[in-house]
């Protein structure tokens, strides 16, 4: 950037050299002394000024984002031009028209968002002179902790991930404390020791989610992830809910299959046991001990025999089919 005076010297030299006078001179436009840090939702003054302004004629001041070249504010032909301004900045960028005479072209940016982080160029044209300065919004200070909006449903015995992600200007590794608590008794969830785990390789991404393993009925409730960093702190809550209805349905199904299993077993055992008892009574009334013992033993052993051959049931299928085949012939 050229200095005003330097420019004059050049003009002087050019005049001395007898050259034609044409100086597209540049003048010093002052910006802030360093990058700016703004709290999320706050306001920030983007400074831009010149020491001396020779004339207000042909004055043009242009504020743009340096990266996208989005026009934030334009002062041209003695007036502000809101129609050429990007809509994102309609209500958020305030230009002090009354300060123009003092060479002050600062812009007040209100309701600062995270995406406002970046560099801004203030360009001033006046007559033959022009100059610019770059203003940087380095950090939009914030700490936003988010989890999941809906409550989580999970079956007893399953594992569940409780989401907790941190969006902050503070890098995740500089966050001082993250605590997971169950809200009822405010007990630290780390008490669950062997049943919880963090995703340590996800922490640099601000993911402080927690995995709760082998969920129990008493795990049902409200969980809170609380994050502290400097003077900032935020929290998110998650409701963990078990599907008890489906649990009992599962239990019912289990009981049903259990009883069906029992039914089958009783079909195998009951008739044989009854026959066995019948022979005992017959033996008592008729007095034939040897026959009673033989028949009883036969009926007691029959279910065992059935169970013993059950695994080979498929081997007989072919035989059965063969028989049918011959019957048809
Ligand atoms: C420019 O104007 C703003 C708003 O009135 C003021 O806050 C700021 O101090 C001024 N800057 C200079 C360099 O005068
Ligand atoms: C947890 O976060 C992941 C990644 O953002 C997302 O895919 C998932 O749906 C979230 N879970 C819940 C229950 O919100
Ligand atoms: C955090 O990391 C875990 C493990 O990779 C993943 O399941 C979960 O969805 C992540 N959560 C978010 C919010 O990104
Ligand atoms: C959790 O955050 C909310 C605002 O997001 C706040 O009102 C509340 O007091 C916080 N809870 C605790 C225990 O800090």
From TrEMBL:
**Where on the tree of life does the source sit, at the highest rank?**
Eukaryota
Give a yes or no for keyword Transmembrane helix in this entry: yes
Location(s), subcellular? Cell membrane
SMART domains tied to this protein: IG, IGc2, IGv
Q: Does the entry feature the keyword Signal, yes or no?
A: yes
Which parts form a coiled-coil structure per UniProt? none
Task: Mention one GO biological process in which this protein takes part, according to its record.
Answer: immune response
PROSITE patterns, alphabetized: IG_LIKE
Q: Where does the record place the Ig-like domain?
A: 41-138, 141-239
Signal peptide positions are 1-26
- Name the InterPro entries on file: Ig-like_dom, Ig-like_dom_sf, Ig-like_fold, Ig_sub, Ig_sub2, Ig_V-set, T-cell_Activation_Regulation
Q: Its membrane topology, per UniProt?
A: Single-pass type I membrane protein
Q: Name one GO cellular component term.
A: external side of plasma membrane
Keywords, alphabetical: Cell membrane, Disulfide bond, Glycoprotein, Immunoglobulin domain, Membrane, Receptor, Signal, Transmembrane, Transmembrane helix
- In Swiss-Prot or TrEMBL terms, this protein is called Junctional adhesion molecule-like
Q: Which organism's genome codes for this protein? A: Triplophysa rosa
Q: Specify the taxonomic lineage.
A: Eukaryota, Metazoa, Chordata, Craniata, Vertebrata
